[in-house]
Amino acid sequence: METNEKTKGNTSDTEQGIWFPKLSRRSFLTLAGWGLFFATIGAYLVQFFGYKGFFYPKVLYEPSPKFTVGTPNDFPVNSVTTLKTKKIFVVRDGNSFKAISVVCQHLGCAVEFSKEKNIYECPCHGSKYYRNGVNFAGPAPRPLYHYDMFLDDNGKLVVDTSKIVPLETELIV
Ligand code: FES
Fold first, then answer.
1. The whole model's pTM is what?
2. What single-letter DSSP state applies at residue 93?
3. pLDDT 10s digits, 11-54
4. How far is the CA of 7 from the centre of ligand 1 (A)?
5. CATH 2.102.10.10 residue ranges in the chain?
6. Is 144 in the pocket of ligand 1 (CB under 6 A)?
7. Which of 12, 82, 138, 170 shows the smallest number of beta carbons within 10 Å?
8. By the 8 A CB rule, do 65 and 145 touch?
């Protein structure tokens, strides 16, 4: 008798399942449906309120167009200094300073300053510009951009690439 009861008990445990109660197909589908429903709601909530969700400001974190390039003494008299990372030339003639863009006005390649020829040359299609940025050869349709430049309270030169100024503009220090 005892042996029979034990066997019965074991059989019953196996049928019911220890970890997962035996479910009817209807109950299983109902549970699965609710699970899917809450998972979907959760995914939407995460999308809406989570990191970089709906309320996260959609802004581009670009570097400021206004930046310091050093003190006037950092630039030798009568020189053209290329600041590659800032994409500008700082041109100093005596006490006059100019900030000129390195971006070619043809298709946007970076022009290079040739010390020997005292001009800017574009390696892409051969445009050439005088030292003051005015184009004189090649397909470039206009001069290089000149940017606003000023001295800040600490005596440092600041360039603002969001402000394009006329070619004759210069900062006298
Ligand atoms: S991009 Fe400079 S000449 Fe074409």
1. 0.68
2. E
3. 444 455 566 667 788 888 999 999 999 999 998 888 888 777 77
4. 90
5. 66-172
6. no
7. 12
8. no
- Cα 120 to middle of ligand 1, angstroms: 11
What is the gyration radius of the CA atoms in the chain, in angstroms? 36
* Residue 91: other Cβ atoms inside 10 A: 21
Determine whether the shortest distance from the Cβ of 109 to ligand 1 is under 6 A.
yes
Q: Which atom of ligand 1 is nearest to the CA of 139?
A: 3
Q: Report phi then psi at 171, rounded to 5.
A: -105, 120
* Largest CA-CA distance found in the chain, in angstroms, rounded: 114
102 touches 89 (CB < 8 A): yes
Q: Give per-residue pLDDT as tens, 84-95.
A: 999 999 999 999
Mutate to test the pocket of ligand 1, among 102, 106, 142 (most ligand atoms within 8 A of CB): 106
